[in-house]
């Protein structure tokens, strides 16, 4: 079974990724722009990996739990 991560931690990861993207837009150095964007993408991909748990479906006890697992999550900060 994979590690579970708190929703607050996922939101924090996405908040940092958003700040990195904002820094990439604000900088005038192409090297830093590329670095910030790559870091943001890596954080977003890692958050997506941590948010997915295939074992959650097997542990679901009822239809409401399954519906909650598939409910869309708003990552906007």
Give the arrangement of secondary structure elements.
Elements: H1 7-26, H2 30-51, H3 55-59, H4 63-69
Helix pairs in contact: 1-2
Structural account:
This protein has 77 residues and is mainly α. The chain has one domain (7-69). Helices cover 70% and strands 0% of the residues. The protein has four helices and no strands. α1 (7-26) packs antiparallel against α2 (30-51).
Q: Give the overall average pLDDT.
A: 80
Cα separation of the termini: 29 Å
Overall structural class, as computed from helix and strand content, comes to mainly alpha
Number of helices, where a helix is a run of at least 4 consecutive DSSP H or I residues: 4
Shape: elongated
The major pleated sheet works out as: none
Tell me the total number of β-strands: 0
What string, H for helix and E for strand, traces the elements in order? HHHH
What is the alpha-carbon Rg in Å? 16 Å
Report the uncertain regions: none
Tally of discrete structural domains: 1
Which percent range describes the beta-strand content? under 5%
Helix content: over 70%
Provide a quick synopsis of the model.
The chain is mainly alpha-helical.
């Amino acid at each position: 079974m994979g590690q579970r991560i708190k929703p607050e931690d996922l939101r924090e990861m996405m908040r940092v990724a958003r700040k990195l993207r904002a820094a990439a837009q604000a900088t005038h150095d192409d090297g830093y722009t590329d670095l910030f964007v790559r870091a943001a993408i890596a954080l977003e991909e890692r958050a997506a990996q941590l948010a997915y748990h295939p074992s959650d479906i097997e542990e679901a006890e009822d239809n409401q739990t399954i519906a909650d697992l598939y409910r869309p999550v708003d990552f906007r900060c």
